[in-house]
Amino acid sequence: MPILLGADPQTAAQVLTVLPQGSQVVDSAERLFGWLNAHPDEYAVLIGPSVGVPDAVALAERMRTTMPTTTVVLLRHEVDTTVLTQAMHAGVREVVAAQDLAQVGGAIQRAHALAVALRGNQASGRNHEGGRVVTIFSPKGGVGKTTMSVNLGIALMRGGENKVCVVDLDLAFGDIAITLQLFPTHSIEHAIGGESYMDEQFISQLMTPHESGLMILAAPSAPDARERVSGVLVARLLQTLREQFDYIVLDTAPAFDEQTLTALDETDECIVVATLDVPTLKNVKVALETLDVLGVAEGHRHLLLNRADEQVGISADKVEGILGMDVAVQVATSLDIAKATNAGRPLMLSAPSHPSSKAVRSLADRLMGIATDSAATPPSPRTHSSSAPAQASSDKREDSPKRFRISRR
């Protein structure tokens, strides 16, 4: 979260209205660097008008060498050419009038996008080892992400052949546990502060087992815990889970918040969930463009159409034309899905031969690189970032062992 230094109480209160929840205000350079040392994932520092230009320049120069990926935004009551020149030479990325809250908010959004892009570039340069992270994402709530996450997790288990866990990253309003009628004693909230000593034993204590063999890491019980789950914690958690599970399914929040962006950075396969209504398709279109800009899961995105009923006037062909992306799988509207959810027993378990179960299983097979037709090998990959679902590998990952199913049992 951004941190603000050197602003009087009135200015600080105004600036905080356009900063993300959890942003901090400090009153000295010592406290600023003390905070940054404890939170190396901070992506933006705002230097307020109360800090003189020479001191602000010195702070920016220090941060340029010690924290080069952190954006420094200089807030001034008046902005002139001299200040701009000095600031830019010192490594300040933006100089903004403190009273122009729209510009302040825009600067922070750009700082966050830059931080995510930098993390993404670093991630793409390393080979993930171990299990594969499958992220279920949609920018619109209520499209069935949680139901699909649970059923896909069970399908990926292949009757116990693979070890699979589902992580509820909808940290404010996650429903994975209640969907499975589980009452966990621990959640991801209990991992806060454990980044430095997180290991298999630590993680196993936070998990809740389901009767199917699926392991669940539940969301916090209180929404306010979301602010204390940092991106660093999410990244460390996923790296540890890779060592224990063949597949890690993430049910994410319907927003590009810090935790979701971090999860997307770690994603091997991204399932984008949409329904056949114009508002959802509009939001999914924007989300796909954002994923393109950030370089997330390029060539490894799969479009899942949920409640796919063409009687509403939008066909799958139209969806593909609107989104510029092939539909990987369609799950038709069915009361059986709702009944199974209300009973706490996912459709993949209660009715494995149901058409919707078969659709989810076909998606799982594609993710595992299992041919779903008469072909002996999976279809070849496509290079466009919004790839066809039948893709089993990409050029940049074709040598990775994660493209194959490796049992850890």
Automatic annotation (TrEMBL):
Pfam families: AAA_31. Residues 368-409 are annotated as: Disordered. Signal peptide: none annotated. This is MinD/ParA family protein. Residues 374-393 have a biased composition (Polar residues). Residues 132-291 form the AAA domain. InterPro entries: AAA_dom (IPR025669), P-loop_NTPase (IPR027417), ParA/MinD_ATPase (IPR050625). GO terms for molecular function: ATP binding; ATP hydrolysis activity.
